[in-house]
Amino acid sequence: MATIKIKQTGSPIRRTQDQRATLIGLGLNKMHRVSELQDTPEVRGMIRKVQHMVEVLD
User: Fold this and answer.
1) pLDDT, tens digit, 9 for 90 and up, residues 6-21
2) What is the rounded CA–CA span in Å between residue 53 and residue 11?
3) What confidence score (pLDDT) does residue 1 get?
4) Looking only at Cα atoms, what is the longest distance across the chain?
5) 37: nearest Cα among 11, 10, 57, 17
6) Helices (H), 1-58
7) Which residue from 41, 2, 15, 1 is spatially nearest to 54, judged by alpha carbons?
8) Tell me, which fold does domain 3-57 have in CATH?
9) How far apart are CA 48 and CA 42, in angstroms?
10) Which of 21-44 are b and which e, b meaning 16 or more Cβ less than 10 Å from the residue's Cβ?
């Protein structure tokens, strides 16, 4: 299955609890951390929810 790399570029400070939980679910919690996950619709939805705090890498 294809994978997708995401990098956290925004801080979870002053964000809602569900956005913080989404970052943790993606394997991110600190600035500039990179996580590689399977490219599924569920992961894409999580990325869309916190798109202002993450960057999709090639």
Assistant:
1) 999 999 999 999 999 9
2) 7
3) 83
4) 35
5) 57
6) 17-25, 41-49
7) 15
8) Ribosomal Protein L30; Chain: A, (3.30.1390)
9) 10
10) ebbeebebeeeeeebebeeeeebe
Every domain of the chain and the residues it spans: 3-57
pLDDT score at 58: 80
Q: Which residue has the tokens 């990098």?
A: 7
List of long-range contacts for 26-32, beta carbons under 8 Å, 24+ apart: 26/50, 26/54, 28/54, 32/7, 32/8
Q: 8-56: per-residue pLDDT in tens?
A: 999 999 999 999 999 999 999 999 999 999 999 999 999 999 999 999 9
Helix (H) or strand (E) holding 27: none
